[in-house]
Amino acid sequence: MYPDFPEGAPCWADARLPRVEAAKRFYGDLFGWTFDEGAGAERGYYTGAYSDDRAVAALAPAPAGAVPAWTVHFAVGDAYAAADRVVAAGGRIAAGPVSEGALATVALAAGPDRAAFGLWQPGSHQGFERTGVPGAFCRAELRTPDPALSDSFYESVFGYAAQDPAPGLRTWHLAAPARRAPGGPTAPRTARRRTTGAPARFLAHFGAADPEATCAAAVRLGGRVVAAARATREGAVAVLADDQGAVFAVREPDG
C-alpha cells in the first residue's frame, strides 16, 4: 500500500542516465538498493529501485544528448490543471501530461528560473514507500540565483507557505497536512537556497547515516564530491555526482 502525498509534496524521484546497468551498480553499492527487472520499451525501460523492498526511486535511459540528472516529482491531484498553473505562473511544460497506464499521469515542467521538475498525479503508483531514512529520499532543495522569482512561482503553483530558518534558506511548507499510512513515510519537505553563478536546479537529498563515509564510497565507485560534508542545524550534508555525472545530495536523515 502506497501512502498518500498532499498536493505539492515531493513524492517521487528518478534519474535519467546513459547507462542504467552502470547506475544500478553505483547506487546498489552506495545505498544498498535492489532493482526490479525494469519495464519494456513502452515505458522507456523504467527500472524501479528499492530499499528493504520498499520503492525509493527509479532509473531510466537518458535521451541521446541529454545531461544525466535526477528529477524530483511533486504530487498533484490533477496533472492537467497543475500544468495550466505552471504556464500561467510563467513556467513551461516540456512534456506531457501523459498517462503511464494505470500507474500515474505525469508531466515534465520547468519554472521561470528554468529548474526542471515533474508533476505526478498518482494512480496505482503514488510515490515513495520509504522516506527520511538512510538510502531513501529525504527532501527536495531548489538552488536558485533568483529567490524572489522562485518564491512567487512555486507558491502560485503549489500554494506553499514559507518561513526562513537561516540566512539564504527558505523552507516551503504544504498548505495541507500530510496524510500518513501507518508505518509509511511522511511527506518530504522542500527548501529553497540562494545561489550565485549557477543555473537554478532541484537537488534530490537521500539519507546517509554517515555522509563523509558515503562521500568516500561514491569516489571509490567512480563518482565525485561536489561539496564536502558540512555540518548544518539538521545534520551533515554533502553534494555528490555519480559516475555518469548526475548530481544529488546525501544528508543525515530527518527523523
Describe what you observe in this structure.
- 17% of the residues lie in helices and 40% in strands.
- It has 255 residues and is of the alpha+beta class.
- It has a single domain (10-251), classed as 2,3-Dihydroxybiphenyl 1,2-Dioxygenase, domain 1.
- It has an eight-stranded mixed beta sheet, covered by helices on one side.
- The chain is globular and about 45 Å long.
- The protein starts with 9 loop residues before the first strand and ends with a strand.
- Mean pLDDT is 88; it is low at 177-184.
What is the structure about, briefly put?
With 255 residues, the chain is of the alpha+beta class.
List keywords for this structure.
255 residues, alpha+beta, eight-stranded mixed beta sheet, 40% strand, 16 strands, 4 helices, globular, single chain, 2,3-Dihydroxybiphenyl 1,2-Dioxygenase, domain 1
